[in-house]
Amino acid sequence: MNLKAPKGIDVESWFIECYRRHKGHPLFILFRLYKGNYNKFLLAVIFFFIKHAPVWVLPIVTANIINDVTGNSPNLHTRIIIQAVIMIGLILLNVPMNYLYTRYKSLATRYCETGLRKALVRKLQQLSISYHKETMAGRLQSKIMRDVEAVETLSTQMFLSILNIALNITIALCVTISKSMLVFSFFLITTPIAAATMVFFRNIMKKRNNEFRREMEETSARVMEMVELIPVTRAHALEEEEVEKISGQLFTVAEKGYKLDIIQSLFGSVGWAIFQIFQVVCLAFTGFLAIKGTVLPGDITLYQSYFATIVNQVSSLMALVPTIAKGIESVNSIGEVLLEEDIEDNEGKYALENVYGEFDFKDVKFGYNNSESHVLKGLNLHVNKGETIALVGESGAGKSTVLNLVIGFNFASEGIVSVDGHNLEEIDLRTYRKHIAVVPQTSIIFSGTIRDNITYGMEDVDEETLSKVVDAANLRELIDRLPEGLDTMVGEHGGKLSGGQRQRISIARALIRNPEVIVFDEATSALDSISEKLIQSAINNLTKDRTTFIVAHRLSTIRDADKIAVIADGKCIEYGSFDELMALKGHFYKMKSLQS
After folding, report:
1. Model confidence over 251-285: pLDDT tens digits?
2. Which residue in 227, 332, 362, 548 has the fewest CB atoms around it within 10 Å?
3. For the chain, give me the number of helices (H) and strands (E)?
4. Would you put residue 460 in left (φ > 0), alpha (ψ -120 to 50) or beta?
5. For 517-559, where are the E strands, in sequence order?
6. What are the transmembrane regions (predicted)?
7. DSSP three-state, residue 360
8. Cβ 420 vs Cβ 502: under 8 Å
9. 308-335: per-residue pLDDT in tens?
10. Residue 293's pLDDT is what?
11. Helix (H/G/I), strand (E/B), else coil: 300
12. CATH class of 359-595
């Protein structure tokens, strides 16, 4: 049997709908997540019942044999042999039943686990860039891995372990009530004590689990950040300071974990002690009943076994409370992402078939969330098809904000940004972005080969096209020098490559898409003069006959731009070619003079 989604169910959409419909009710959510797999759980329950039969039957067989022996029953040997054979058969049946139980239980729970992770991954791809900038990657990673695993564990406990507990207790009580109402009444005394113990600790456990989960997310994010900063830390001899900083966070997690451990330990030990005392009392109680002749001597073992079963099952239920509390907290944690409404919604919007590259910014204002001031304060700009536009200005002037508006990462608070006469807010950005390429300031290289990084997201790229792209991006010398050429592994984040090499790979990745619109965000700002020259040559190859937006601090790199837009105080204050702006002797002239 394959692990796959039930027929007719859109997994990710269904999970998100479950959270939205039952918001605030994690157990309802958990139950609905398994739609299409209830039959597997039912089969798992049936096989579970059969495989556990020896546990329920053995006390009855034991009591019967003792009673037969002490009562000198007729056909004693035959009765003992028959009951022994029945027990051996049930014990042997446990093996295949356990396999079938595990098979169907795992198919259901693993499907849900995989589906939840897919739903989270899809939702992360839909959430806005602003959301990702404001949320630590470590927290999101923790939700996808740790929280989903906790939900899978919760599923097993809720649907199977608790069912096992309920079946064990029910059968024990039913057999007991059929033999002695007096003993049954004694058994019932333990139930209120178990309930009282669980209620007492439930609220404390919920609070501690919540605190611990948040500290773990925070620690995961801090550790990830620390690992990424190791080259900077080592370069400035800040190892001890970084160790101290992370140690403080680790001790905070340890403290939260310690408090959680103490509560869990206290919870378990108090419950265990209470029920062990009652078990001893039960032994003495049934012993006195046997002396009086109220029950048979063999029934002492029956009642003692079933009482032990009830004690152990209620204790198990109590022990499950921390796991259930943790799982419920993880259900809510996953819901924080799946119910997040800060998404990029493209459904039902106009789909672009072609992009020519003519842009208009009309009275554009833009401000980031939780900020009262605007970064752009009435920007007006027209870019013709095929033009290369350089954006210059002081740090914080709004240059990168303009690029984010071009890409569609952000929308104007006021005014209109349009491409080919279409308002960007009214088009399906996925169809638009198929025609653009972005080369960021910090090259994003993933683990894999150079070929993988250049052809990322593209299929069936022929060697001739790839070779032309390598030449245009000035990567030929590098590729020829490497033993495995394009199939050389670049290491994590491209750690085996220099900054200039990584940037040229980014340019090759953009070039192979043959885009109509290109966005460069300070592509040469952190490179040496030789690398900058190679990059600039690659950029010139890439920008031919394509609408291009370039942000650059080094003004010498934008001499060949068709137009230069000087951004200051959220507006375009000067606009023209390099020579025109130099002749104007305004703001751009002063900036160029300072860099000379």
Report:
1. 888 888 888 788 777 776 776 677 677 777 777 88
2. 227
3. 22, 10
4. left
5. 517-521, 547-551
6. 41-60, 80-101, 158-178, 184-204, 266-291
7. strand
8. no
9. 777 777 767 776 777 777 778 888 888 7
10. 78
11. helix
12. alpha beta
Say how far apart CA 585 and CA 578 lie, in whole Å: 11
Q: How many Å apart are CA 400 and CA 525, to the nearest integer?
A: 14
Residue 436 is classified by DSSP as E
- Asked whether 349 and 426 are in contact (CB, 8 A), the reply is yes
CA 88 distance to own-chain centroid: 47
Q: What is the mean pLDDT of the chain?
A: 79
533: Cβ–Cβ under 8 A, 6 or more apart, which residues?
none
- Is residue 131 very low, low, confident or very high in pLDDT (cuts 50, 70, 90)? confident
DSSP assignment of 251-281 equals HHHHHHHHHHHHHHHHHHHHHHHHHHHHHHH
Contact predicate 470/476, CB 8 Å: yes
CATH of 11-338 given 1.20.1560.10, 3.40.50.2300, 3.40.50.300, 1.20.120.80:
1.20.1560.10
Q: For residues 185 and 542, which has the higher predicted lDDT (pLDDT)? A: 185
Tokens for 102, please give them: 């595990």
How far is residue 251's CA from residue 247's CA, in Å, rounded to a whole number?
Answer: 6
CA torsion 17-124-134-509 (nearest 10°) is -160
**φ, ψ of residue 4 in degrees (nearest 5):** -150, 165
pLDDT attached to residue 196: 66
What distance in Å separates the CA atoms of residue 310 and residue 190, rounded to the nearest whole number? 9
Contacts of 318 (CB under 8 A, 6+ apart): 194, 197, 198, 267, 268, 271
Tokens (6 digits) for 83: 């009951």
Place of tokens 């329920």: 56
Which residue spans of the chain are classified as CATH 1.20.1560.10? 11-338
Rounded to 5 degrees, what are φ and ψ at 98? -65, -40
- Between CA 35 and CA 6 the distance in angstroms is 8
> One-letter amino acid identity for 595?
Q
Residue 534: its pLDDT value, please?
A: 63
Distance CA 291, CA 98 (A): 41
Q: 109: how many CB neighbours lie within 10 A of its CB?
A: 23
The answer to whether the beta carbons of residues 539 and 515 sit under 8 Å apart is: no
| DSSP states of 386-429 | T-EEEEE-STTSSHHHHHHHHHTSS--SEEEEEETTEEGGGB-H
